[in-house]
Design brief:
Elements lengths: L7 E10 L14 E4 L4 E9 L14 E2 L5 E4 L8 H5 L13 H6 L17 E15 L5 E4 L9 H4 L5 E3 L13 E5 L8 E5 L2 E6 L5 E9 L2 E2 L2 E3 L17 E10 L4 H10 L5 E12 L11 E5 L5 E5 L3 E12 L11 E3 L5 E3 L21 E3 L3 E6 L4 E4 L7 E6 L14 E6 L7 E3 L8 E4 L1
Antiparallel strand pairs: 1-6, 1-19, 2-3, 3-5, 4-5, 6-7, 6-9, 8-11, 9-10, 10-13, 11-12, 12-15, 14-15, 15-16, 16-19, 17-18, 20-23, 21-22, 23-24, 25-26, 27-28
C-alpha cells in the first residue's frame, strides 16, 4: 500500500527547481532551438515560417527541411556567441541585426531565446521542508494524527521526530553540502515525463544540546510524475501561466541503513518489521519569472568540468512540496502506491469564491481565474488491518494564493508576483458514497 501505510510522517516545505529552459520549445515552431529527434541543439537555430509572409534581405537564407517545411537558419549565431544570443531579447542582439525583421514578422521580438533560466543545472533543492504531522495507530485500533510534540497523548518516540527536516543534500550537517537530487524531463517540451533522480534523501535535526540526529538517510529509486492536476492553484491557472498552476506527485522507495532509528519506530507502530521507507512527494505552488532581464539576474559562481570558475546567471523556479514518509513492505510498488482511484461523478465544478485574487502582471494586465475546474482523481484504499478507508486528497483539492509579494527588479512586463500564502478552495461538502451492484440509492459512507 505504501503511501497509505502507518505510521505516516507528513511534511511540507519549499524547494528550488533550477530548471534548464532553452530546450522547452516555448516559441516553437517559430523559433526552434532543439532537435528532439536527435537530442541536440540546432546550430544555427531555426525560425520556421509557416504561413508568415516574409521577404528575406540579402544574405538571409530560406531552406526546406526533410519534411518540406520552410525555415530560416540564424546564421549569425555560432557556438562562440550562442550563450549571449540566448540570453538577449530577440531584436536587441547586434550581431544578428539582419534577422530583426524576421523576428518582428514572427511575433518574436523581445522574447528571450533561452526562455527564463538558460543556465539551469536541473538540480532540485529542498528548503525548510519540515515534519508537520505524524499519523500513528494506537491501542484499541484507533488512528490519530499528532500535529505537535506537546499534543496530549503524543508518544515520546513520535514527539522526537517533530522539528526534523527532509533534505536531499549529500551531507546535511556540512554547511557546504549541496543537493543530490535532479529533476529531468524525458521529453523537454512535454509535461508528462518528468523524473527525479536523487542520491540521498534523509530526515535530520539538531537536539537542544546541538547534537546532530539522523533519523534516516538512504538512496531513493528513480521516480516519475504519476498524477497531475493542472488547476491545483486557481490563480496560477491562466492559460498564459501554464503549467505554473499545476501539481505533480512522485513516489519512490528509499533503501536505508538497517540501523536507522526511524526503522525501529516504524516497526513498533506498523506491527511488523520495516526495512525500507516510501516517499510520496507533491510539487505545487510553482512560481516562475518567465521574462527575466538576464543583465539583472543574481549570479552564482560555478566551476566547469575542468575547474574554471564562472559567474552564472540564475533564475530558478520556487515551489512548495508536500507529502509523507511511510513504511515500505515486500510486495509494495517502488514507484507507485497500490490503491484504487476515485473519480468525481460531476467532472466540472464551478468556482465562485469572490476572495480569489486575480493575478496582475507587471504591466497591469489582469489575468483570469477559471470559472470551473475538473477535480483530479483521488487514490484511496480500504485498509482491512485497521478497517479504515484512506483517501489521498492532497493533489485533488484546488487552492489559491493570497497576499501577493513583490516582483524582483529583473522581472518582465508579463510576470506576476508570487503569492506568499495559500488557502484551500472551499468546494462545499464532500460525500463518500457506495453504489451497490443491485442498484438503488447510493449509501453514504462519510461526509
Amino acid at each position: 500500500m505504501s503511501q497509505f501505510d502507518f505510521p505516516r510522517i507528513n511534511f511540507h516545505g519549499q524547494a528550488i527547481l533550477d530548471t534548464a529552459t532553452a530546450n522547452n520549445g516555448n516559441y516553437e515552431p517559430r523559433l526552434t532551438m532543439f532537435d528532439q529527434e536527435n537530442s541536440t541543439a540546432f546550430m544555427p537555430p531555426r525560425c520556421y515560417l509557416g504561413d508568415t509572409v516574409y521577404s528575406p534581405p540579402s544574405g538571409v537564407r530560406v531552406l526546406t527541411d526533410k519534411k518540406g517545411n520552410k525555415y530560416v537558419p540564424i546564421d549569425a549565431v555560432s557556438s562562440s556567441n550562442y550563450q549571449k544570443w540566448a540570453t538577449t531579447p530577440l531584436g536587441y542582439f547586434t550581431p544578428d541585426q539582419l534577422y530583426w525583421t524576421l523576428y518582428e514578422a514572427l511575433g518574436l521580438k523581445g522574447a528571450n531565446p533561452g526562455y527564463w533560466n538558460y543556465f539551469g543545472d536541473l538540480s532540485m533543492s529542498l528548503e525548510q521542508t519540515l515534519v508537520t504531522g505524524i499519523t500513528v495507530p494506537l491501542s484499541g485500533g484507533n488512528i490519530k494524527t499528532f500535529i505537535s510534540p506537546t499534543q496530549e497523548g503524543c508518544p515520546s518516540d513520535v514527539a522526537s521526530i517533530f522539528g526534523a527536516e527532509l533534505s536531499f543534500n549529500n551531507d546535511y550537517f556540512d554547511p557546504n553540502s549541496r543537493t543530490s537530487a535532479y529533476l529531468s524531463d524525458v521529453d523537454s517540451i512535454g509535461q508528462m515525463c518528468t523524473q527525479i533522480f536523487c542520491g540521498t534523501a534523509g530526515l535530520y535535526k539538531t537536539d537542544s544540546n546541538g547534537n546532530p540526529i539522523t533519523f534516516f538517510a538512504g538512496n531513493p529509486v528513480k521516480s516519475t510524475a504519476r498524477w497531475m492536476n493542472l488547476n491545483k492553484v486557481l490563480n496560477y491557472s491562466d492559460q498564459s501561466l501554464l503549467p505554473m498552476g499545476g501539481s505533480a506527485c512522485f513516489y519512490a522507495m528509499i533503501n536505508v541503513d538497517p540501523t536507522s532509528s526511524i526503522l525501529s519506530t516504524m516497526s513498533k507502530y506498523a506491527g511488523k518489521n520495516v526495512t525500507a521507507l516510501f516517499l510520496k512527494l507533491m510539487i505545487h505552488e510553482v512560481h516562475e519569472i518567465r521574462e527575466p532581464d538576464y543583465t539583472k539576474l543574481p549570479v552564482q559562481n560555478m566551476s566547469d568540468v575542468v575547474g574554471n570558475q564562472a559567474a552564472v546567471s540564475k533564475n530558478p523556479a520556487r515551489v512548495s512540496v508536500s507529502g509523507s514518509i511511510t513504511p515500505y513492505f515486500e510486495g509494495d510498488m517502488k514507484t507507485g502506491s497500490i490503491s484504487r482511484l476515485l473519480k468525481h461523478y460531476n467532472p466540472d465544478i464551478q468556482i465562485k469564491d469572490p476572495k480569489i485574487l486575480h493575478p496582475i502582471t507587471k504591466n497591469g494586465t489582469i489575468l483570469s481565474v477559471p470559472s470551473e475546474v475538473k477535480l483530479a482523481p483521488a487514490p484511496f484504499i480500504h485498509n482491512q488491518n485497521f478497517n479504515v478507508v484512506s483517501i489521498d486528497l492532497l493533489n485533488t483539492i484546488s487552492e489559491y494564493g493570497t497576499n501577493p509579494g513583490e516582483l524582483p527588479d529583473y522581472a518582465g512586463d508579463g510576470d506576476i508576483p508570487a503569492y506568499t500564502t495559500f488557502q484551500s478552495n472551499d468546494f462545499g461538502t464532500f460525500y463518500l458514497t457506495f453504489q451497490p451492484d443491485r442498484g438503488g440509492n447510493a449509501l453514504v459512507i462519510k461526509k
